[in-house]
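Predict the 3D structure for this chain.
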Amino acid sequence: MVAVLYQLVLWLALPGVWLRLKWRARKEPEYGQRIAERFGQVPDSVPTNCVWFHTVSAGETIAAAGLIRSLCEEFPDYPFLVTTMTPTGSDQVRARLSDCVAHCYAPYDFKFAVHRFFERVQPKLLVLMETELWPNLIAVAGQHNVPVVVINARLSARSAAGYARLKGLTQPMLTRLDAIACQTETHVGRFVELGADPVTTTAMGSVKYDVALPQRFEESVAALERAFALSGGPVWIAASTHRGEDDIVLQALLQARQRNPELRLLLVPRHPVRADEVSTLVVEAGLTVSRQSELTHENKAPAEATEVIIGDVMGSLLILYGLADVAFVGGSLVEVGGHNPLEPALCRLPILCGPHQFNFSEAMAELEDSGALLTINDADTLAGGLMHWLGDPQARRRAGEAASEVLAAHRGATDRLQKLLGGRIRTVFLQ
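Done. Predicted structure below.
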């Protein structure tokens, strides 16, 4: 019954999905482009009989890029396809992998779209990142005898409870999976409890611990430091913020500037389309504001009094972390679950995070236990945590080193996954 209702809901939603793309394209024009791909119409440039990775959005694409490139180098005679759902993910595929993979958008989970995609592409293997579990996608893969492997798999307690309420849909989907490589044993337990095969569901770590700094990182940081006129004073970054967090961040900045008037903020909304909205909030708070896109594209340095710079250029977050002394990780003061704390850890930064941490609960707990992360709850505690680390350079340095040590202790998932997927690739191409 649940499966039937799922198909009915999809059909009823079809006109709304198309209209939502058109509506979103008013602010983000990329959503109005290549719409046919989202309904299974694949460009001629996409090869058949390929290894297909689905990486969803920018974060997952960045995390998987090293693994995908290593597999492309190991199997240079086999075609690879990487699909995403968002334009930002598409941009990252082009930036990081365009020389070795084909790319298009993945089809939405309408049966007709998924069937059309499989009939055209005829993939040999489908690799899904994290929690991209779509019933029709996985069912149609089974009908076409295409093995499906989930890597870097994670399932928060909240998500697991949601899947459990839809057991009639979830259990058949999980039993069709050939392998699930989870980030931790905790995630293994949740998948198995929902119906995944305990023999093929294992913990292999997270590839996000293996992400490295980009080439010419220091040069890129120095270039932005000049463009932003940041030399000389302390800088903190509030990264991947959502609506409801920006006001809190700005209140904390005002409090902290009472003690250190030279303090400046890099405010990076999770979605750059919110840059106008966030700029308005900054002005309403009585602070001066500049935008990264204006400063870098127009080669115009901000006035010395500029207190807030909005990061509105996709794909540059790691470089922006490199400019900062302390990082706040967004999505954690609202019930989003927190974004990736491993990127500021890679840059050896002490980390501040709100109480909503379920997306990266294990990583954040370990970072906190190591002394690299402080959990805050509001503007007062955010300002307090910020000034604690800015006021004690030795404590700030120790926290950054502790963050780096946590990363080092968990590296290696990419190598393990390369072995797992390498074996699968050999099998499907030698059949």
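The mean pLDDT is 94.
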